[in-house]
Design brief:
The complex is a heterodimer of chains A (632) and B (252). Chain A has 632 residues and is of the alpha+beta class. Among the domains of chain A are: 37-47 and 383-599, no CATH class; 199-375, no CATH class. In chain A, 12% of the residues lie in helices and 30% in strands. Chain A contains 9 helices and 29 strands. In chain A, the strands form 9 sheets. In chain A, strands 19-18-25-26-28-27-29-24 form an 8-stranded mixed beta sheet, covered by helices on one side. In chain A, strands 8, 13, 14, 15 and 16 form a 5-stranded mixed beta sheet that branches. A 4-stranded antiparallel beta sheet of chain A has the order 5-4-9-10, with no helix packed on it. In chain A, a hairpin with a 5-residue loop joins strand 9 and strand 10 (286-288). Chain B has 252 residues and is of the alpha+beta class. Chain B has 2 domains: 11-40 and 195-238, no CATH class; 45-193, no CATH class. Chain B is 22% helix and 40% strand. In chain B, the strands form 4 sheets. In chain B, strands 4, 5, 8, 9, 10 and 11 form a 6-stranded mixed beta sheet that branches. A 3-stranded antiparallel beta sheet of chain B has the order 3-6-7. Classes of the chains: A alpha+beta (632), B alpha+beta (252). Chain A: InterPro entries: TCTN1-3, TCTN1-3_dom, TCTN1-3_N.
Chain lengths: 632, 252
């Protein structure tokens, strides 16, 4: 099976090389031409595309492909990932010792000791692999499995022997006193104190960011609200240095009249998170965030954040400019062996909401993103195999000047699915890509959204509007230009290269139903795109100890149907009080994502034929129980 | 003349058949049987079922009046992932997230969810069935999300059951949908089954044999002593000729 696959890849590459050989008449001249890429695609380095054709790479699937599965961002360091080549300079500047040489996993706790003599591995017996490279001590990992449901505390990496084990087995008396509680915390907040000791040294990974307050001179943590136990926002939650974060919490609306709640200085005001303090970037430098600029929700222009304040619109009885999302984009630089925060900017989102008089809550999200200065980080969905929950790579095949893929990296630019959202008092189809549903690996999805039409809307003359609205609702774009019409390739791996066409698989596109737009009865609008089904065939590739998930086939099925106005309730079809022209009925469009796994490796999906019964039965795996057979 | 070779004539002590049978053949059985569980009527095995979510579910969300006023709710979306954590080809747990968009004034107090499963067992006992996970949770306050974390357990001849510690979160933000998050672990389970005739005989034979060895050794010793010493009456038959190999009555 594997050999067949290798051969296929080799054949594909061979064909690409032949095609390129005839096309590369004046390659250097051709490469200088910048072809227009589809909207939202990221630029292609044509020089690399040329090299990819000149030096095709073959996949050696006998080896462990997932050597560094934690490196999930190209051109940017994934904090805590020791094998990420982008991290080397950062770790050395922070004097950070990264432990472990493979995938970083929060669930795995590693302990090394010279008292550990041997391991009893299930598969291989290569002891060197279990030895710590620095101390030559044997290491074990404690797998804190959330599946199994039990946890161990992290003993840290421990190289000394006797004292550690004696501390593990000693009997400790139970005391109420806890020294760690009584010693003053590392962030003194006494007014007027000099720089606290923590500021004497530069930030390290995971350190709390410090805010210096001005009205009462003192220090506190830089607030990045996070949900408390009840889900409500806890403003005391700190942002951590170089640790990306994204949290959603409920902001409880206090009792009171709406105009009192809907004003500046409240947690619904963006200035609440930006003014009255300075971000301490090092022991001697601070940065003010009060003059930051935000995009005005109405005019869509960049204005000072302090000018966007919540206010009560009496006529509409809504609170305008409620902050629902803020993202702090921290830019850092590594220079002269030090890592410092260079700049901060924010991305904000505002909503207009009807604040009821009863106590309720508003959902807010708070994020922190860390970017190295002058780098263009490119998130991957796996290295190399897709990780569950990461976005699928969609792209378009380009043939000129060289075979390459125009890849749509962001949720704004790629294929998304419809979903209903509550907006402006109505539950309806999401209008912007940000509100739509992302297609992620391994997650089967059923979704859809609701459109509202009157009988008049479904007349023959208005049908074109219905068709385009339904098309936009399902695909998020205009027919012919929507991403579903542009996309024809999907990444085989989570890190498929834009310049290696062999790392992408074509998307089969098909239609069910009639899209020819025939003339229909009044009240019925036919040839409406009513459903979109995205289907993937996946397989596991590589070493059986560390298999990598790949996509080996993809299909997009568009279903065309009709919207028909029906007499469901009496008032749907009789004009009582002249309300019939405004009588709306609900119409549903649907979308789904399915992942079908191919067992037994990579190959063409074949109809299932059960294997013939064996004449000699296989040795049961428990035949020498409690001893296990090698390889079990 | 010299005695160049000698052969012994055997004496055979004969007693009625029934007395010896009771002594060393029947007694082990009686002894083993008296200790109960001689015939294995029920046995257990441990296996992990191959469970597949059939992508089919029923969701009923109850609330107070405001919910019903909104008549038909919006389209919920459901995300499911079946994880095979140990790469053995059998899914180990199911993660699902159901997002129900709600109007600002909708209140959710109760969630009832049925998720249909195909349940295959392919080891000692073979079985395929379709069943459903049933989740029925309610809360006194308006909820924003429900978390369910459960093990799938089989209760033979009744239904699949969930050991489900669930958590509600409230209140719901006005711009927040209802979210139902769940993790159903397809745990290894203990199954009762009726053993086959070969298994029953094997277990019986092992018990009989272990008693027989003990009884036979002791009863032989007692019989020999009792008969030879004449405590028990027996017929004694002495061989007319030695019953040794190759012995002939005539020398030519």
């Amino acid at each position: 099976m594997y050999n067949t696959h290798l051969l296929l890849i080799a054949l594909l590459l061979h064909r690409s090389v032949n095609a390129a050989a005839t096309a590369t008449v004046n390659l250097t001249a051709t490469l200088t031409i910048s072809l227009p890429l589809p909207t939202g695609a990221i630029p292609i380095n044509w020089t690399l595309a040329e090299q990819a054709i000149a030096f095709p790479t073959t996949l050696n699937i006998q080896q462990d492909l997932g050597q560094c599965t934690c490196d999930l961002t190209l051109n940017s360091c994934d904090i805590g990932c020791c094998c990420d080549p982008d991290c080397a300079s950062l770790y050395s500047s922070l004097n950070y010792k990264c432990t472990g040489n493979t995938a970083s996993n929060d669930n795995v706790v590693r302990m090394c000791s010279s008292l550990l003599a041997m391991v009893n591995p299930l598969a291989s017996t290569n002891l060197v692999a279990y030895k710590d490279s620095d101390s030559n001590q044997l290491c074990v990992v404690i797998n804190n499995s959330p599946i199994k449901g039990f946890y161990y505390a992290d003993p840290g990496t421990f190289y000394q022997t006797d004292s550690f084990f004696s501390s593990q087995i000693q009997m400790n008396p139970y005391l109420f006193s806890r020294q760690s509680y009584d010693i003053l915390s590392t962030l003194p907040s006494t007014p007027g104190t000099v720089n606290p000791t923590i500021l004497a040294q530069p930030y390290s990974i995971g350190d709390y960011l410090v805010a210096q307050y001005t009205d009462i001179p003192g220090y506190g943590v830089f607030s990045l609200p996070a949900p408390s136990m009840s889900g409500s926002c806890n403003d005391g939650s700190p942002a951590k240095f170089l640790v990306p974060s994204s949290k959603t919490c409920n902001r409880i609306v206090p009792m009171g009249t709406a105009p009192d709640i809907c004003k500046s200085g409240t947690p619904f005001d963006v200035s609440y998170y930006l003014t009255g303090f300075q971000l301490v970037t090092s022991s001697s430098t601070q940065m003010s965030l009060s003059s930051m600029s935000c995009i005005d929700p109405v005019s869509r222009t960049s204005v000072a954040c302090s000018t966007i304040v919540p206010f009560w619109n009496t006529t509409a009885a809504i609170c305008q400019n409620i902050l629902t999302s803020i993202t702090f984009n921290f830019t850092y630089a590594v220079s002269n062996g030090a890592t410092t925060i260079i700049s901060v900017n924010t991305t904000t989102r505002f909503s207009n909401l009807n604040l009821p008089s009863i106590s309720t809550a508003v959902m807010q999200s708070f994020s922190a993103i860390w970017t190295l200065q002058n780098s263009t980080p490119q998130p991957k969905s796996g290295n190399p195999g897709y990780q569950i929950g990461k976005p699928i790579l969609f792209g378009t095949l380009l043939t000129q000047p060289l075979p390459a893929i125009a890849y749509f990296p962001t949720k704004q630019s790629t294929l998304t699915l419809p979903q209903d959202i509550y907006s402006k008092g109505v539950l309806g189809c999401a209008q912007t890509p940000g509100e739509r549903l992302e297609i992620t690996f391994g997650e089967d999805v059923l979704s859809g959204c609701t459109l509202y039409y009157t009988y008049q809307d479904l007349q023959q003359g208005n049908c074109a509007n219905v068709r385009s609205a339904a098309y936009a609702a399902v695909t998020g774009g205009v027919q012919g230009l929507s991403k579903v019409d542009v996309i024809n390739m999907v990444g085989k791996f989570g890190n498929s290269s834009l310049v290696k066409v062999s790392e992408w698989v074509p998307v089969i596109s098909s239609n069910i139903g009639d899209s020819s737009q025939p003339a229909t009865n009044p009240g019925t609008c036919s040839s409406v795109l009513t459903a979109l089904d995205v289907q993937f065939i996946t397989a596991k590739l590589g070493s059986s100890n560390n298999p990598q998930s790949v996509i080996i086939g993809a299909r997009i099925v568009k279903t065309w149907g009709a919207f028909t106005y029906r007499c469901i309730l009496p008032n749907d079809c009789r004009n009582v009080g002249g309300l019939l022209p405004r009588r709306l009925q609900k119409f549903r469009v649907r979308a789904s994502v399915s992942f079908v796994g191919v067992n037994g490796g990579v190959g063409i999906v074949q109809p299932f034929v059960p294997p013939p019964p064996r004449l000699i039965p296989l040795l049961p795996d428990d035949i020498f129980y409690p001893f296990s057979l090698p390889g079990n | 003349m010299f005695t160049i070779d000698s052969l012994s004539f055997k004496r055979h002590f004969r007693v009625p058949l029934v007395s010896t049978a009771i002594g060393d053949r029947i007694l082990p059985f009686v002894w083993a049987y008296a200790g109960h569980s001689f015939w294995l009527k029920m046995n257990t095995f441990i296996a992990q079922p191959a469970v597949t979510y059939m992508r089919d579910s029923l969701l009923l969300v109850d609330g107070v009046d405001a919910l019903f006023e909104s008549n038909v709710m919006a389209v919920p979306n459901i995300k499911v992932t079946e994880f095979d954590a140990d790469n053995d080809g059998i899914a180990d747990f199911l993660n699902f997230t159901i997002r129900v968009p709600l109007n600002q004034f909708d209140y959710v107090r109760r969630v009832r969810l049925a998720m249909f499963l195909r349940y295959d067992l392919d080891s000692v006992a073979r079985m395929t069935m379709q069943s459903a996970i049933l989740i029925d949770e309610s809360t006194p306050s308006s909820a924003s999300s429900l978390f369910v974390n459960a093990d799938l357990k089989i209760l033979i001849r009744t239904k699949l059951d969930l050991t489900s510690p669930s958590t509600w979160n409230s209140p719901r933000a006005i711009n927040q949908p209802l979210n139902i998050h769940g993790r159903i672990k397809y745990a290894k389970d203990v199954y009762l089954y009726r053993p086959s005739i070969m298994e029953v005989l094997k277990f019986g034979w092992i018990q009989y044999l272990s008693y027989f060895a003990l009884v036979y050794t002791i009863s032989r010793f007692i019989f020999t002593w009792a008969i030879r010493s004449g405590v028990v009456r027996s017929h004694v038959i002495v061989d007319v000729l030695p019953k040794q190999d190759g012995f002939r009555g005539h020398v030519f």
